[in-house]
Amino acid sequence: KGFKNIQQLPPPLQQEMLNQAGINVKKEELIEIKGVQDTWLVIGQTEGKDEDTNLFYRRTWIAGEKSQKVALLLEYAWGTNPYETNFKPGNQFRGEVVYYPSAHPLRVSLRNFQTVVEPFLVNGFADFDVFSKEYAKAVGGNPWLLVFPAILDEVVPVFEKDSFYIVDKNKKMLPIKTEETTSWTLLALSGGQPITVFGAFENQVFQPLSAILEDQFIVLHDTKP
Asked: Is the model's pLDDT at 195 over the cut of 60?
């Protein structure tokens, strides 16, 4: 139905529909698009594999100091071939990224970069009401959005009724999904005190990937090579 009416859709949504169909914009086509120059913190990383094709993929989430935006570096590798970059959570670099056209732009391509060590603070959502409004806005713009990255400020991890949650300053709860050892680590790091957590919201649950405690960056999800 969407393709039958594609010409009536806004250009970003037209492109998103093509993305979902596997017709992606190539890197060479990004040359004319203005990039975003910033200092970026690698704030989270996950990796997966397509067993049928032996194709590995890696999601590297980066947060900009000035832009205060979270962007996605999506890389693929076949078999034993390496990825194009070697970023690890906690790394920092200064460089220009360009966003792929989308109804809700997240994925970026690196134009140039250099490694730096300049610690900076990242600002997140003040509470779950703000988070949910931004998520609703994102899904309203792109109905096919599967993963929504979020930095959540002043949350307290809790264990209740055999499940793990994070609680905001208004006492609202959000279920988290990760390895049990990681969940207990998160509780131990917090000690009942508010911390900042970065993660990915997917399938109505939140997967914590990193945390910031007293200006210290802590990796919660270790990407296997």
From this structure: yes
